[in-house]
Amino acid sequence: MTTIAFETTDLPIIGAPMAGGTTTPELAAAVARAGGFPFVAGGYLSAEALAPLVERMRETTENFGVNLFAPNTVPIDRGAFDAFVSALEPVAADRGVAIDPEPVDDDDHYSDKVDYLVDNPVPLVSMTFNIPSAEVVDRLHSVGTQVVATVTTAAEARTAADRGIDALIVQGPRAGGHSGTADPTRSIEDRATVDLVNDVLAEVDLPLAAGGGVDGPESVDELLQAGASAVVVGTLLLLSDEAGTAPTHRAALQSADFDETQLTRAFTGRPARALVNDFVRKFDPIAVDAYPALHHLTKSFRAQAKKDDDPQGLHLWAGTGYRGAQTGSAETIVKELGAPFTRN
Fold first, then answer.
1. Is the pTM of this model over 0.90?
2. For the domain 5-71+108-244+324-341, what is the CATH superfamily, name and number?
């Protein structure tokens, strides 16, 4: 079996690719210095914006990955979408925010970014939100790049294996931020990530990393014992010095006022785990399966909430292990998580 890039690091810890500015170049570099595996988060970026981040990563380490959002458009129920717009408009108006009621669709510059990565190969490319086509996998393989798919079910793992994927990132439902599910319309039941790892390993014979609900070294040990080659951490890095986490988000993660997380489609139209706030309570019951249309619809509202330092209107991504997040250098955090499990 081929050795996967994330299996060759000193520590079996992967810094999750948190798009939207949370995984900064400084955060990725700190993960690499600690001996973990760093990712460049390619989501929400054009190929032109991704390129300098990749080149900066090359200056730090030869062993890293780039994560992309694979397109997965779901047909929009226009009636339900319009009802959501009608509910959001007065709330947005109170904040002085104008919203565009027309659904916006895009593929997150996916084709351009794949072209860029074929022309400028990196060690590993991971995909989330959908399983990449066999054609895309073959193109990346042709330039020596390993291809990894995020999966959330054993069935997705089988599809990935059938398309020639080299390895998997098994994401449990307790992970913070967006679920990588290839079926964003499905109902996602709560379960331990270790149980999902066991299901996937019973279905396919591929190397895998795992994440979701990790709150400390004991969680890391449990997933490694279950057969994962590495453990993905994202929420545990949100309070680190190098993370691009907004101050409002940082404060909420440490506040007693926020004591629950929930999978919700309210912010983007795709299931994502966040701290429960007023926006979730009001809009989750009427949220629709409409990514990226709902993402674009609520974007200006969320930006204003961030500007206003209002945690009740902001997407406060967090996994269930958020109380384990610590302040300080990400390098120290990763070393403390992975030190008991040093590979060499």
1. yes
2. Aldolase class I (3.20.20.70)
